[in-house]
């Protein structure tokens, strides 16, 4: 089957990165085709699930603080334009850590330099404000009052819908592994349909390593990540916003969100799980995983010690070696771009990623060195949180 139409840009992958790349290109007058094997923000993607944190704190990695600020503005603009303001929940974000935590202090310094609104609390003040949290081992906290939660899969769907309104074509298609060198002419679906474009962007999350095994097979590390929702006691608002904000506890390497939309308290470990194949990994949590998270919830939130698990999710991170994004040209295909490596923190940055890559393609803007493929190593040493 021969391609019958040529687009300016074909974007493969309709997760948060691909959706915002397509939207920014459409805003700049490009004829864009957006392709995805399962649909925008589908349940197997890293952009799926109900919610994702948007925060400004990144330790000394100020590029992500700046991108988060810029992205929050654009998320709010999108939601206002589409009458979906509920897709951003301003819960605030609370950082908790032990005495002398270097990242917490670096975050304070970076937030000040970037004029981000925040408050600092010592142990005594935290105890008064958040009595529902067991503060054992915690010495201080930072509260970002303007940050919060993006309602993830619906936010991706809203982004794609807005891009379609602006002229982007969306097609459901599974794209075969690209091959060759020089100028790439078209991608081919599993059904044999060809899609031609002048430029191609692959924003496939955990599938990037499978589509480009020669270059990314040992540089993108998909890992299994489990998420749990605990039912809150009847008539108890201690675990809902505003009584409880979104929170990150450095001591325990965990994060979570208050009871939003009556789904229950969300909690997950921010540790890399086992390496997986996104097509074949089990999407069912194990008894061991459930027992471990029950112990953590009972420890940090004693009021939920006997709360039921009401929902679970198994998704994946697609990590680079240190947590920086991958946004670069393909090494041998001159008109092919790679965008991924969200590394568990990428969702919030979708608008900034789309803006950045549109500038790379259309303006030949100067690239950010930390996003280049040449700087991606083959051994995981996480440094971006």
Key structural traits:
385 residues, FAD/NAD(P)-binding domain, D-Amino Acid Oxidase, Chain A, domain 2, 2 domains, eight-stranded mixed β-sheet, 18 strands, 26% helix
Distance between the termini: 45 Å
**How many H/I helices?**
9
Strand content: 15-25%
Strands in their spatial order, largest beta sheet: 6-7-5-13-14-15-12-16
| Count of distinct structural domains | 2
Number of strands: 18
**Name of the CATH superfamily of the largest domain:** FAD/NAD(P)-binding domain
Low-confidence stretches: none
Mean pLDDT, to the nearest integer, reads 96
The backbone outline, from C-alpha atoms, is globular
| Overall radius of gyration | 21 Å
CATH class of the largest domain: Alpha Beta
SSE pattern: EHEEHEEHEHEEHEEEHHEEEEHEEEH
What's the CATH architecture name of the largest domain? 3-Layer(bba) Sandwich
Largest sheet: 8 strands, mixed
CATH topology of the largest domain: FAD/NAD(P)-binding domain
Verbal overview:
The strands form 3 sheets. This protein has an 8-stranded mixed beta sheet with strand order 6-7-5-13-14-15-12-16. The protein starts with 5 loop residues before the first strand and ends in a 22-residue tail after the last helix. Helix 1 packs parallel to helix 5, helix 1 crosses helix 9 and helix 2 crosses helix 9. The chain has 2 domains: 186 residues, FAD/NAD(P)-binding domain; 157 residues, D-Amino Acid Oxidase, Chain A, domain 2, CATH 3.30.9. A hairpin with a 6-residue loop joins strand 17 and strand 18. The protein has 9 helices and 18 strands. It has 385 residues and is an alpha/beta fold.
